[in-house]
Predict the structure.
Amino acid sequence: MATKIVMEALSPTMEEGRLVSWKKHEGDAVKTGETLAEVETDKAVMELVAREDGVLRKVLLAEGATVPVGALVAIVGGADEDLAGLLGGPAATAPPQGSGVRGQGARPAIPAAARPAEAAPAPARPESATPQPLTPDPQPLRVRSSPLARRLAAERGLDLRLVPGTGPAGRVIKRDVEAAGTAPARAAAPALPTRAPTALVPQAPAGGFRDVPLTTMRKTIARRLGESLGPVPHFFLTSEIEMERAWEARAHLAGRDEAYRVSFNDLIVKAVALALRQHPAVNASFLEDRIRYYGDVHVGVAVAVEDGLITPVIRHADRKGLLEIAAEAKGLAERARARKLVPDEYTGATFSVSNLGMYDIDDFTAVINPPEAGILAVGRIAQRPVIVDGAVVPRRTMRVTMSCDHRVVDGATGAKFLQTVKLMLENPLAMLL
Amino acid sequence: MAVLTYRDALNQALREEMARDRNVFLMGEEVGVYQGAYKVSRGLLEEFGPMRVVDTPITELGFAGVGVGAAMAGLRPVIEFMTWNFALLALDQIVNSAAKMLYMSGGQVPMPIVFRGPGGAALMLAAQHSQSFEAWYAHVPGLKVVTPATPADAKGLLKSAIRDDNPVVFIEGEMLYNTKGEVPEGEHLIPLGVADIKRPGRDVTIVAHAKMVAVALKAAEELAADGIEAEVVDPRTIRPLDLPAILASVRKTNRCVIVEEGWPFAGIGAAVVDGIQREAFDDLDAPVLRVTGADVPMPYNRQLEKLAKPDPAKVVAAVKRVLYVG
Amino acid sequence: MTPPPETATQPAKAAPPAHGEADALRRMLRDMLLIRRFEEKAGEAYALGKIGGFCHLYIGQEAVAVGTMAALRPDDYILTSYREHGQALARGISARAVMAELFGKATGSSAGKGGSMHIFDTSLNFLGGHAIVGGHIPLVTGVAFAIKYREGDQVAVGFFGEAAVNNGAFHEALNMAALWRLPAVYVCENNRYGMGTALERASAIYDVAQRACSYDMPAEVVDGMDVLAVRDAVARAAERGRLRSTPTLLEVRTYRFMGHSMSDPIHGHYRTKEEVEDAKAKDPIHAFAARLRADGLLDDDRWQTMEAEVADEVDDAVRFADESPEPAPETLLADVYREPAEGAR
């Protein structure tokens, strides 16, 4: 019984996937649950697994090629089964519902009577490497685009769904299509060598310019952040926080035992989480017709990875101890850099922290990660001249800037929240209260 | 080339056409002895006599109808309305008599008549004296509607209008009468239905007619300071509308803002948008926006009046929206 | 009918006809008969759905159109309101062309685009039926202006009903005609009712002719049931226009035997059956025929021949209209504009 293997939606926001490498080759026997290929989603490298036993009969996507979710990538079937019907029939362009993830209902080429084994759901389907997508409809979205952008995209062979839109509500407009350049010839793309890290680092030629195609992650970053600054009315609150006590406390802890080493960022996450608990108005999302206030506090921590960034989530950060937060943050960051995060680990934050202190940034503003209503941008801790009792004295301080979605958070609300964060960091003991 | 005011360019057109064709005469309130309420007809009574420069009683319906009747009998009347606000009294004659005569006579009775006078708002003249009627007349098949923006256009278009065998609604700008520009001497004819690029540009098309051309040009100047090159297209004739010229510009710039002084509902811009979305849909990178007069009777108060009229700032804002900047 | 006030002006009587014009007089009788039979047929065709829209019949008023046209020259201009089948026929537009226009056919006098209310024939200087009450009266003034402008000796003649004299267009147009001394003849066909409203319910004064006083314009009250009286009065007015460039207002008292239009009742709330019957007793065709008989200008033979000819002519017109082609679809867009215009474009 031949089965189509399609590009599956392996993350909630995934609209396309890049086939990194095939783990099975044409003619290989495959068992249910075995990895067929590695796929780069917008967030991570994931595994595409077999949903049926059989033989990998046909590989339809070259390594390195990118296709939208739902596109046919391979066929698994009996060793000498005739595949003509699957390859030639109208089902060759089956919609994404044909994906193994979404169940068996959509294999129209084969009459139900001819596959009695599928009459009932397979009782013990192995869990895939990733949980079922949380959003109800991961298939390609209707793309908002100007008529001109549509025409230009058609002329250049670009898939508009892959072009980040910078117009109102993410509308793809002329400049976006022009920025996207021309499309890779997808179906006929030659097999790329296995992704080498260097390939992602743009090396500027001596003169002129060099176009480097966007990685899936870069596209997602561009689209998501573009969606944010456009429709989300940001405003910014900056505060300078004295970090002397925090500095001492951290040094004291680390001095006692290496196991007690926590980062400043862990302190900040904890302070933010507690402040969110005290200021539920900030722990919220704007949902067009309503504002959703969250009962739990999940803090996203932006992590730079080799070709982008990702924001793993420390769940229930308000209820976790510092050491717990530190351990979790460390693990998540490592997994993020190895691109091994699963969607559960980088979705669902209610507020985020972005720290560029390690890059010697004094202060900056961050772009909100919708649907969150705020993000705290954290600068470096440095000794700065501070006036105390009329005298200029050196003090370790840190500047933080909070970006607020004004539809949810008003100035005073944000300011009070930030005051609490400041209080806790300036007096770490307050976090115990 | 001589530099003339818009007023004198019109005067020159009238004088030349009356000298050229004995069937052309001017009729209206204060056109003769008084030399014209806005002095457009200055000197014509002395030159052509009272049979060809005819002062009328204040009877817009009446003398508009007299003009129609004279045209039916083969003359080429130029009927002056002191302002187009008063021509509402003559609407029956313009629409029911002039516009339909050729058609309802089965092609037997042509209607070579020009109705002309100032339209649009001037300054602090309040609700009954500050109205833009081009959309009303452009709605009517059988009428041509001309709205010159410059002295040269005023002359060239009026001469063509007088020679046209159809009823022409020729709407001048009261605020334009004193504007100056180079005007070709003698046989300067601008065909009706041909637009003019008042300023070339590549980034956005601004369609504006009559007084709004100056507003659009001012906006284009401000935009140029931001590196935005606006193309200002003046259709000059509202009906027939030179849609091909507008489309050519939009195909180049992919964006369009339409400026008109009149009210928004079913205005000129609505008709232009209709043409653009139909013929240039795939060339649009943004919705076409309109800058119009406010949807209110014109208030007297200076500040309120200013709010009610299109101005360069409103045009600049609209342009930035279609360019997705600012 | 409300009796006229004692101060009401009495119409002038016609001068006795000269015998030398026997053929002309019989011709007038025949024209009136043609109008009568034509309108009766039009009423039938309307009832059969061959004629659409509004159809205003002229039955009862024939003497006004025929008497007026008899006094005019071929180069004079005629403009009328929408009740103009009679004027069109009296002016000499063929029954075929008029009937075909009512049928909306390509062979109609306005190529099927005008219909009952918009009959034109520029070859006869017949400049149309116009259908906004009073709206065409300024046009009459305009045509008269053009005549004077060109120093011609024609007159512009305009027909309208008595209900039009209360509207501003009438006042503005007559004022200018008198002010500028234009050769216009304003023929007010006073048939007593503007649709269903009697003159005295709409006008502050009974004698329409008195309106002319406002403009210092010559005026006459004319018996509209007497075709010769109409002819004489129009002749006087035309001469006034031609020789002295002076306009005239004629109030021609007549009566409409039919309803306002084919879709309106002949009598009812606004007038009684008896009143209509009384008016019919003064039928202008019968009266004129009787007079010609009395003068020895008409006998049974001639009358019967006339009746037969007219019946044939009307039947022929109906047949012609029926068999004529519809306007071609492509004519829909024709004649909205006269193109190319001279000079421009």
The beta strands of chain C are 77-80, 126-129, 156-161, 184-190, 193-194, 197-198, 219-223, 248-253. Chain C has one domain: 22-194+203-264+271-316. Confidence is low (pLDDT under 50) at residues 341-345 of chain C. The radius of gyration of chain C is 20 Å.
